[in-house]
């Protein structure tokens, strides 16, 4: 059933947004700009644009680099978490392709998954750096690898 698959994909993009807020929309727009569904083109036209896809890719790359800086704020502080929630909601809503436009339920799933993922990966990073004594840069690279693998897998689910 396509709706269940879409629901899990929305949750997956929310998890990805909790890991890296710009990576989720970058992967989504990259895939959607190749062959955008007609309903989504009308509902969220920016997500199907090649220019938007390229710009989000650059922002995602910047986020991957910036994440390693000790001056980067924690992902669970209010403004940063809010960005992750919005990223999860937008990408979650966009995967409801079988329906006429984006749906609120998918947006809520994406947002909730982004919140849970943000807190989970704070703990994961803390485990790596404090308990296992992995340097912060290496721990960030591990998380980057997980985010890129998840993003790649999620875009295949959109096809």
Specify the helix fraction band: over 70%
What is the residue-mean pLDDT, rounded to a whole number?
Answer: 87
Count of individual domains:
1
Number of strands: 0
Largest sheet, strands/sense/barrel:
none
Number of helices: 7
What fraction strand? under 5%
SS content category: mainly alpha
C-alpha end-to-end distance = 15 Å
The secondary-structure element order is HHHHHHH
Task: Characterize the overall form.
Answer: globular
Low-confidence segments, given as residue ranges, are none
Radius of gyration: 15 Å
Written account of the structure:
The chain is mostly helical and 159 residues long. It has one domain. The protein is built from 7 helices and no strands. The two termini are 15 Å apart. The mean pLDDT is 87.
SSE map:
Blueprint: H1 2-19, H2 23-34, H3 38-43, H4 50-66, H5 78-94, H6 104-131, H7 136-157
